Fold each of these.
Amino acid sequence: MQRQLDPDTDPLRLMVDPDVARDPHGFYALLRDRCPVAHSSGINGEAVFLSRHEDVSWALRHPEVFSSAADAIDIGQEQPLIPLQVDPPAHAKYRRLLDPEFSPKKVAGLEGEARALVNRLIDRFADRGACDFHEEFATPLPSTLFLAISGLPHEDLETFLRWRDNTIRPDVAPGDVEAAARIRAQTGREITEYFTAAIAERRARPDDRLLSRIVHAEVDGQRLSQTELLGICHLLLLGGLDTVTATLDCMVAHLARHPDRRRAIVEDPTHLDAAVEELLRWETPVQVVPRLVRTDVTLHDTTIPAGTHVVLVLGAANTDPAEFPDAETVSFTRDRNRHLAFGGGPHRCLGSHLARFELRIGLEEFHRRIPAYEIPPGTELRYSPGIRQAESLPLVWDPAR
């Protein structure tokens, strides 16, 4: 049954509490076991949190019930984020346009460029014997590659990163919804202004990069409108700059704390693909995704009325023992790994193939060059809630090894 949990176990803590972000697994288990349909008064109004794999997976596959449209969440955007905030059937036309741009074949063509970039980043600190992995590797790797793919100038990266952080983790007091909304709204206006100019430039002077291809593409025989183009650009900016950074932070922090698992991929890199999938499952950097209920739905004898805001707890679903045998064990030989780190259903992450590619090449080259490292003793890592990105991730190693 639905229950209002006490303040210490309010599911809202997933969204605001750095202690839960640092080590969420106990909290995930509590939600699954005690309250799979958990109610919270929230900081943005009433919301229901779903935490079991079966429920979350079903919700992701049924956008006609659990909608991802623009009214599911407001992050300051001035137009729907496309294709994320457009439900089927209209959603399909945008995926037909964009999926080929992020297909495994297309992504594989970036390998030479990506490996060269990774090694240039490592060259900057390998002989030093120390780095802030978050600042010096996890942030510039996907960001620089995204700019190159898109055809956007590298000198604008700091601006893009500021917009990313203002949107996803605005620097306000916990619970200050109004201040966060003001920052996000201003950021949304700045993003719109920037890409309005960038789109006009690509119309006048096309090139062979992603943004230009989208500007000149046709969907069902028609060019995309300005609103559609801005919605695509806004989503690509956030997706291209944030989630792989957060995932690298989580994965390398985990491997630093578990040397046996780090050694497994150093000694046999063929484990790397499975390791990436298992760490996506266990760490699940994108802990939650929002949805809005379109029609009454009943789960666990609890009716969730139409109009209810719902939070799907991907991290809890990914550690559900009803789906994953030995769910609390991290195993790089797991046979069946239906994790939901990239979501599922029609709205499954557009960039999942690119993300896997960046993670695999980044981890492979980093461990080839720096096979043994650790987090300095006494270091306490801090992660942002909701999307578990480290504030910093100091690593040290013996450069002579």
Note: The first helix runs from residue 13 to 16.
Amino acid sequence: MSKTPLFWADRLRNLATLLVVVIHVAAPIAFEARDLNSSGWWWGNFWNSMARPAVPLFVMLSGFLLLGKDYELFGFLKRRVSRVVVPALFWMLIYSLYNHIIKGSPATPFELIKGIIEGPVHYHLWFIYLIIGLYLVYPILRPWVRSATERDYWYFFTMWAIGTWVYKAMYHFGGIDIGIYFELFTNNCGYFVLGYYLGRKPFGEVYSGHIAPWKISERQVTQLAWALITVGTLATMLTTYFFNTTFRPADGKFVEFFYDYLTPNVVISAVGWFLLSRQLFNSHPLLDIEREAAEASFGIYFVHVLAMDWLGFNGYWHSRIHPAFCIPSMVTLVFLVALTVIMIFRRLPTGERFT
């Protein structure tokens, strides 16, 4: 499998980047609508629900690509600093300046430094703190995933489900804070390992004691992927509607629990998209535009919020037309503006270092 071109990985990266833009365009419609029975809200709910696997897909793809390779520890950390931390600091400074111009904060160098340490500087940059944390745990997980058996993986995924889904649900809906610390089994670490597991799971091979092969055909895995995407998206849409029409708090605050990346419904969708990408996205070599978009994906993630705000300042926003038309139109426009900006930026001297 290592000799097979991974066209699907770049296409999945492009898909995840596009889904991030979908979330940031559609979320205000879902969160701010007063009439949850309007067609406008349902379109916002659909696009927001469908796109929620965006960040999990980035994490799963990182797990697949990184945990399958052997890196010398300090060489790995140095490479991550160069490819992630340096660009992140650059864009944190850009957004700090942007926030200072718009809101007057941060007002002092101390507030600037404090904001970068505490994070996330701007609402979408929280992902950087997440991915840096996963890079720090990579040297511990790498030898484990290589030696873990099928049973070990399923124990890990079961504990992850309890430590993340059950804990969150009991605390959110029952106010119960379980005292046991699950440590390694919480939050996005599960997605990191899951990406490696699903990306390496073989077809039609004899079980070697490591990751067991699929017991179904490749065609059935593709059908399973479509089913998981459909079920996960519908579950996100319907549970969000139900809890906001039946159990909405007295203060009227929107219940966004089921939009959370660490919920079973989003995990189901994320697994579906990951499997579908692996099955269907590798049949043809990458087009030049696909390759350039994949290389620019980190930069697009950074700059798309500025592109979205700039378009909003110029009158292009979701309130102008019905969400059925405005969401795909705005997503396309924001993505193309961000891609164009980053492609130009990458052609400047040292521009690639910051994207």
Note: Residues 7-201+212-283 form one domain.
Amino acid sequence: MPPVSKRTESLGTEHAFVVLAEVNRLIAEGKPVISFAIGQPDYVTPGNIIAAAKKAMDDGQTGYTASAGIPELREAVAAYLSRTRHLDISADSVTVAGGAKPFIMYTIAAVTDHGQGHEVLYPSPGFPIYESQITACGAVPVALPLLEREAFSFDLETLRELLSPRTRLLILNSPHNPTGRTLSRQELEAIAELLRPYPDLWIFSDEVYSQMVHDGEFASIASVPGMQERTVILDGASKSYAMTGWRLGYAANETLAPHFSTWITNTESCASSISQWAGVEALTGPQDDHRNMMESFSRRRNLILEGLNSLEGIDALRPGGAFYVWPNVSELCRMVGAANAEELRKRWLHEAGVAVLADQQFGTPNAGEGHFLRFSYATSEENIAAGLERLTGWIAKAKQ
């Protein structure tokens, strides 16, 4: 059998989908599992968006579109980003793809060269596809630790030490997956100040959870003076409009937009025309369902945070956004004899019927930081209460 490439062998994965498959298998076997593992809204796409997609099909909008996206959606995205980021963004700066995830690869490929030692700084813990795509594109991954003692914010001195003339890209993610940390305007201004001496450095600002800020207001580094030109703003419909399966994401940067379009031509040709028309309705149509969904995540955040912090051996910081909480379970691991968070995760799944993700599924755990799990509270308040009740019983039994 001919071998596969080393690039393919080294490609990482998104463990949420691995655990999801495991959860579905257990459920199919008749074992009840309450899942906090997958970052997917538990809502159905709002009816007006579904109706817009049906209309697009009835109107014959079922063929290829321009690689950059239909003009109507690019204009709607530009208006949305301009309004929410307090910027002037033109439709020509916007590119549409089959989900937000492809833009990770498109951006790294657009600003780094294979084998040239170009470095990409990425948050750790963080979305695992960042590191995977950095390596696959032939750049050098440089982890930027997010530490509990810093409330999972960036340590500016560490960032200063890691920056060099080799740095071509800094990946930011706020609100952050997996910790739920949001970066304030003041923090972003301080980061921007460190980047100014590096004219060859781009910023990839992953803002797919921008509509899920529970405390304060969302801030984008692109709105800091001098940063818009070098920042790729990433957003999408999946999280905000319960459209994960529609695969619709968008990015904005005036210089890179035509290059992104070329990459799309070379890979996916274009995003689904039907999804694009649905996206127009999502951004320009009634927002009542969207607002109700966002408000529900804030309520759920409060419920799960209070519940986790009431459990022995668990300590969770208050997440400012997204729908994730990242509790420290080091003491609980010690109490029940679990070597690490991954062992605890497996025991919870098979002994308590509760599914979560472990810290090692978001990169190599930072030294001295203890053990963490990620809970997604994109599930009902009833499931949250039932899951916490199961964990309460499991902890009491495991201690014995």
Note: The mean pLDDT is 95.
